[in-house]
Amino acid sequence: MSTTELPASHAELMDGVYRWQRHIYDLTRKYYLLGRDKLISGLDVPSGGTVLELGCGTGRNIILAARAYPDARFFGLDISAEMLETAGAAVAREGLSDRVMLARGDATDFNAKALFGQGSFDRVFVSYSLSMIPGWEKTVSAALAALAPMGSLHVVDFGQQEGLPGWFRTLLRGWLKKFHVTPRESLRDVLESEAERTGATFRFRTLYHGYSWLAVIKLGI
Fold it and tell me: Distance (Å, rounded) from C-alpha 154 to C-alpha 97?
């Protein structure tokens, strides 16, 4: 997918938000993007497998996953050219360019074969991106369509803070709004519905009293 085919308004918004923040993103986000490492440890990538991250950002997650699964190949998609610049430099710095391929695209509508030369993937994961993507439900559908038989989709994102005090939820929502982030109230329902539609199994966990939600949709079981 070429840059001209991307939804310009959202791509420009993300570039604007992260033009400077990308330089401190990982340092600051590690304190409140909770559950990312649990997602990575649960990928259980098969030997020689392929993994796609939608909304790869600075490359933090894809690099950790590539280290954890050294015989797998990784592919990262993001709509922000600014983030991809940082991710590409990080991947190269870690000596992973031979196993990690990055491309600019829209997570709600992408052609994996055109972008990566890879039509399907054993694992697809989305970490704290659905809460930033307009029309995020389409990302879930697109991710499932990109899975190979017996593949699985792994998602971690903000929950509804259902087990935390109301004041905390209010403060968190106000902070996230500054970065165009909206926790998706219907996330569990959408994921479960998509699992039913595709005949897949669905696993769901609440983490840290509902601060984060972690879900897995697995095909073919």
Answer: 23
CB atoms within 10 A of CB 118: 15
Instruction: Kindly give, in sequence order, each residue whose CB lies less than 8 Å from that of residue 168, ignoring residues fewer than 6 positions away.
Output: 161
Predicted pLDDT of residue 163 = 94
What does residue 215 show for φ and ψ, rounded to 5 degrees?
A: -140, 150
Number of domains the chain is built from: 1
**pTM to 2 decimals?**
0.86
What is the 3-state composition of the chain as percent helix, strand, coil, each rounded to the nearest 5? 40, 25, 35
Amino acid at 64: L
pLDDT band at 165 (very low <50, low <70, confident <90, very high): very high
- 3-state SS record for 130-159: HHHCCCHHHHHHHHHHCEEEEEEEEEEEEC
Q: Distance between CA atoms of 169 and 160, rounded to whole angstroms?
A: 8
CATH of the domain at 211: 3.40.50.150
Tokens 């004041």 identify what position? 167
- 168 three-class SS: helix
> SS3 for 24?
coil
- Going by pLDDT thresholds of 50, 70 and 90, the confidence category of residue 108 is very high
Domain range holding 37? 3-218
Distance CA 212, CA 29 (A): 14
